[in-house]
Specification:
mainly alpha; elongated; 93% helix
């Protein structure tokens, strides 16, 4: 085979791999959206940033490998990579990784609450024991504030008379 044909086949293969990788990255976004609910504007922002990043990545690949010339077989290769990934592994990848990440987050949450449970019991016990002294302290502060306000008013009346 000639060197030009090998170059074109290599370019087509790189386009094919780029199509697969672009779709995998978007599936990672889909997984995050399943695990962590997103509002509409956050989803829109993520999609905008995703497509800007993909377009820069594709443009750099085109400039590096084909001097910036858009070749339709490269577009077809990328679309074939996207389509093949989507039909074979795409939905399985999203479904099982979403379940796996949800399960791991659930385990971390359980572990977190297991670790914090003794602290919560200590704080609850301290709250019960400090409830009356806290109430007395608040009443004392109110009385002190009332006395200081009365003293200030008396002082103003005395100063205004002289």
């Amino acid at each position: 085979m000639s060197l030009n044909i090998l170059f074109e086949v290599s370019f087509l293969f790189h386009s094919f791999l780029m199509g697969i990788s672009i779709t995998v990255i978007y599936d990672v976004l889909r997984i995050l959206r399943r695990v962590i609910p997103h509002s509409l504007w956050v989803v829109s922002l993520e999609d905008l940033l995703y497509w800007i990043g993909c377009s820069v990545w594709i443009f750099r690949m085109l400039c590096r490998e084909n001097n910036g010339i858009l070749r339709w077989f490269a577009v077809a290769g990328a679309m074939a990579g996207m389509f093949l990934y989507k039909k074979t592994l795409g939905n399985i990848f999203v479904q099982y990784f979403s379940l796996l990440i949800s399960y791991l987050l659930h385990l971390v949450e359980k572990l977190f609450f297991l670790i914090l449970r003794p602290l919560a019991l200590v704080l609850k016990s301290a709250h019960k024991r400090l409830k009356k002294p806290w109430k007395w302290l608040k009443m004392g502060i109110r009385r002190l504030k009332k006395k200081l306000t009365e003293g200030r008013k008396t002082l103003k009346m005395i100063l205004c008379k002289h």
